[in-house]
Amino acid sequence: xxxxxxxxxxxxxxxxxxxxxxxxxxxxxxxALAAPAGAAVEEGHGALLLPGLVxxxxxxDKTMWGMDWYRNEVGTNLTDKIENERAFRHASGHDAAxxxxxxxxxxxxxxxxxxxxxxxxxxxxxxxHLEGTLRTREVLREVQQIQVVAFPQxxxxxxxxxxxxxDQSLAMGADVLGGLDPCAIDGDPVKSLDVLFNIAxxxxxxxxxxxxxPGAMGAFSLDLILQRTEALGMQxxxxxxxxxxxxxxxxxxxxxxxxxxxxxMAKLGVVLIxxxxxxxxxxxxxxxxxxxxxxxxxNDGIRDTWSPYGNPDMLERAMIxxxxxxxxxxxxxEVALDTVTHSGARGCGFENYGLVPGNRADLVLVxxxxxxHAVVSRPVRKLVVAGGRVVARNGMLSADxxxx
Length: 404
Known about the structure:
This is Cytosine deaminase. GO terms for molecular function: hydrolase activity, acting on carbon-nitrogen (but not peptide) bonds, in cyclic amidines. InterPro entries: Amidohydro_3 (IPR013108), Metal-dep_hydrolase_composite (IPR011059), Metal_Hydrolase (IPR032466), Metallo-hydrolase_Enzymes (IPR052349). It is built from 13 helices and 16 strands. It has helices spanning about 80-90, 95-110, 130-140, 160-170, 190-205, 215-230, 255-270, 285-290, 315-325, 330-340, 340-350, 370-375, 400, and strands at about 5-10, 15-20, 25-30, 40-50, 55-60, 110-120, 145-150, 175-180, 205-210, 240, 270-275, 295, 365, 380-385, 390-395, 395. Helix 3 links the parallel strand 6 (about 110-120) and strand 7. The longest helix has 17 residues, at about 215-230. It is globular and about 65 Å long. The two termini are about 25 Å apart.
């Protein structure tokens, strides 16, 4: 029976309260709460209280976080990046188990208690990267909820045997089935999506598809995805990562076509995941939300062969989303935070989330006056609680977790 009382904190900037945690869950929120016998007590000193942060799209298995600098000389095409990465990982023996653990711990120290990671599955590496990342999920399962996506980064149809490996991945415990550009990479969108959705339907697992395809091509693929979502009864179980085509109004997609796609996505519970990259057109955040589409945020890759950029700080990602979408008012910046908190949890299907009694006690304390202030200033995480356990102070993991 573990018990923790955190005094004098302001949930999402509201009036000061105390929070009592019992056996990993929020037991009570109120003023002047009594500390149960034997409870640990933490003084919040009026800090802003946030729920644990949520990373909706990253790639733990391929990061070089903490390693020597990688000199990036890769070509500009998507296929250049894919082929370069596969060759590098094969030649170097890149250790997905070790590196996924390093980055997951870095996320945790900065308050990310739940995350979704895509893990490469292909006929060259087989299931090695998946096995390594599943080990990380197991090591951290008490303090960080990790969803693993079996992801065909090199394509599904072009390398025979990939479909069978994805099938095995779900049987081994991958939580979600990933997909990639059925037109631009696989070249046969109907067959590609039929194979993908059949595997997902067989295992009753959600689908998360990287859709980089622009304009009319991307809209065509998205239409096919929505058709299969409805036909297979997979409402609420499909995510579109990137969805750049939804931002290509006037460049292959009309506003009417985009709005029709958004309406269908909302009806089918298909969510959208964005990293808000500055180099591509992006789906319109506010229009998506107004249409009823859940939009969540993620870093995508962090410090890997694709790009040297990225940081396992979801407050920073919320700030980047705010900048990309020109969110300036305090209420707009709160929307940016929502993409990496409540919408992030809802979009990934993480349950028992939020600052409500009965939910899992994933809590983050920062010195900030308001939610918008926290996003813009990205202060040190004074305290991170995961599953009712204090896991980090002042941006540093507890000694036992740091030693893993």
